[in-house]
Design brief:
This protein is α+β, with helices and mostly antiparallel strands and 361 residues long. The protein has 2 domains: 2-203, Hypothetical Protein Pfu-838710-001; 223-356. It is built from 12 helices and 10 strands. It has helices at 18-22, 25-28, 51-54, 113-118, 171-184, 194-203, 223-240, 242-246, 250-269, 277-314, 318-342, 345-356; strands spanning 2-12, 31-32, 38-46, 57-64, 67-75, 84-91, 120-136, 139-152, 155-168, 188-190. It has an 8-stranded antiparallel barrel with strand order 1-6-5-4-3-7-8-9. Helix 7 (223-240) packs antiparallel against helix 9 (250-269). It is globular and about 75 Å long.
Length: 361
């Protein structure tokens, strides 16, 4: 049994940017672990009622050549632990889970007879992976490029992402490397794991704007732990709404602004502990991007709460129609500016700097 505390970042990369990624100077100086990309087929198991998912767990059996590896993953604290997870691996003999080997994992409390009977394959991921080993300072980092798809029955969706995982050393080096990569290739910080993508496909979840989640602080949490947990949930809200906001969802834009305000408030609340200049600069960047998203939100609210009721009451009179049309044009212009801000290099840096607020060391 191999148990580790996984510290990683996931970055989404559009398929069209893969050649640019392959040509990255960062990767040209790295060591490839295998001559050829590895083909990985992973089968995820759960019950009909998705009991493992409900408990923040995933169970997969991955075939790597002739090797079969069973992995149990558990989200820390049960909520929005984006980048640190409990992970247990075990080599097994068959394509089916070896639940006896999972007795010392996060899955142990659920290992009842009923669960053993009801576990079944629920979805698969098929990925071609190329792995690079990178030395950054005194730290060793593994960068994996995954291209493939997620399949749940007859449904499938493409998958193209970069995973940057700390193998040894300091988490600060992981964030530093990720920022270097983001400046070479327009990648976006992602919060969905492969398991998340599979479950979303399986259940046909409708994408909705992600609202602020309550933060359950343990009674014995110290100030540093409390701040990390609060920052983590705020960051989850920020990142989770990014794709929908870029697609034009006004509620997702609003929730991104809420997340940014919450992050600023958290930094202010814990200001006696966060005394480094970098954190203060980060707070200023949160404020700046909040302002850049503001006009689109304000025009959306004005059109919905003021203009629409007037149009509904008085009909399409020429003066009202003219004002309504001009305001809608201003809203579209403001949305374009907001999208440009979120797609910018400056925002990518901001998101990765925000991740670093959650580091343990």
């Amino acid at each position: 049994m191999s148990r580790s505390r996984e510290i990683e970042l996931k970055l989404e990369v559009p398929m069209r940017n893969l050649p640019r990624l392959a040509a990255s100077p960062l990767l040209k100086g790295a060591t490839t672990l295998e001559r050829k990309p590895a083909d990985l087929v992973s089968t995820y198991f759960d019950t009909n009622k998705l009991k493992l998912r409900q408990h923040g767990l995933s169970l997969r059996v991955r075939r790597i050549g002739s090797r079969l590896v069973q992995t149990v993953k558990q989200e820390h604290n049960g909520n929005a632990a984006l980048f640190t997870r409990g992970e247990w691996e075990h080599d097994i003999r068959t394509n089916l889970p070896d639940l006896d080997a999972a007795r010392d994992t996060g899955l142990a409390p659920l290992l009842k007879k009923k669960l053993r009977r009801n576990l079944k394959p629920v979805f698969e991921t098929r990925v071609r992976r190329k792995v690079f080993r990178i030395q950054s300072g005194n730290s060793e980092i593994e960068l994996s490029i995954d291209k493939g798809k997620v399949e749940a029955g007859r449904k499938s969706s493409p998958l193209c992402e970069v995973e940057v995982e700390l193998k040894e050393g300091q988490a600060t080096e992981l964030f530093k490397l990720a920022k270097t990569l983001a400046r070479e290739v327009p990648v976006q910080l992602a919060f969905k794991s492969k398991a998340d993508r599979g479950y979303a496909l399986l259940t046909a979840e409708k994408a909705e704007a992600v609202k602020a989640a309550p933060v359950a602080l343990p009674p014995d949490a110290d100030a540093q732990s409390a701040f990390r947990m609060i920052a983590r949930t705020c960051l989850h809200q920020l990142v989770a709404n990014q794709s929908m906001m870029l697609a034009g969802d006004p509620e997702a834009l609003h929730q991104m602004r809420v997340a940014l305000r919450r992050l600023r408030a958290a930094i202010s609340l814990f200001s006696s502990m966060l005394t480094d200049p970098q954190t203060e600069a980060l707070k200023g960047e949160f404020k700046r991007i909040t302002r850049e998203l503001g006009p689109a939100r304000e025009l959306e609210v004005f059109l919905k709460r003021v203009v629409k009721p007037v149009v509904d009451r008085q009909g399409n009179e020429s003066g009202i129609a003219l004002v309504s049309r001009e305001l809608r044009q201003r809203r579209e212009s403001a949305l374009a500016s907001a999208r440009a801000a979120v797609e910018s290099q400056r925002f990518r840096d901001l998101a990765l700097d925000a991740v670093a607020l959650d580091r343990d060391g």
